[in-house]
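Quick note —
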Amino acid sequence: MKRILVIVIVATTLASCVSTKKFKAEQEKLNLINSKIQTSLNGCEEEKNGLKLKNKALQDEAALLKKQIDFLKENSTTAIKQLQDLSVISAKQAESISKSLDNIGAKDAYIQNLQTSMARKDSLNMALVMNLKGAIGNLDDKDIQIKVDKGVVYIDISDKLLFNSGSYTVTSRAKEVLGKVAKVLKGHTELEFMVEGHTDNLPYISNGNLEDNWDLSVKRATTVARILQKQYDLDPAQITAAGRSEYKPLVSNDSANNRALNRRTRIIVLPQLDQFFKLLERK
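Predicted structure written out below.
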């Protein structure tokens, strides 16, 4: 009877140890995921604060310029009246100078509107980046990069996530990633996107279907474009597919690691140049 009791106690203790180890391992995984999410959120918050400071500086500068112009207009109007009274200039000349000053005021208002529009565009891009990072979650930063550069949003997805070596057939994991990206892009019907394929500089070994890296980069771009269209219902009128081959590397192709960085698919949120040029048109 005592032997049976000892065996039961030992078995219970072992089961408890295994359960505790499993719990700790799962807890460590959860902590790691939370840490990555927090790091991504902190980065977004820093970018957001930077844009706020930039916008505030532009507003302050515009306000200062307006004060200076108002001061010049006020003093110039007084000077014109005095010159007129002294018959130094004619009424026609005085009218011409007044119109010139009015044009200066109009240009000042135009500049302020342009600055406001650019600040609004920066804010919209920042919101898009935060939505993309939130949708993608805790993927390794080496596999997918999302950034804003000079007012353009770039989404870089590594070659190993999307395709097998030398192939333009997407992996199962690629569809998961593209689905998350498409979910965010689908909510922006006013924007257009370019899908770019990029390779390293190692010669492509032809298999009869493709001739070189140009062909491979184009086929990868059109493959991703078709998935966004047919599987995730993005409007094909919003999508452009392009192949860059090896000619737009991120880094020099002098090592295996660098070549891996250069093999990527890039989704670019295209700037709305037609709307920007409308801002430049005189009314």
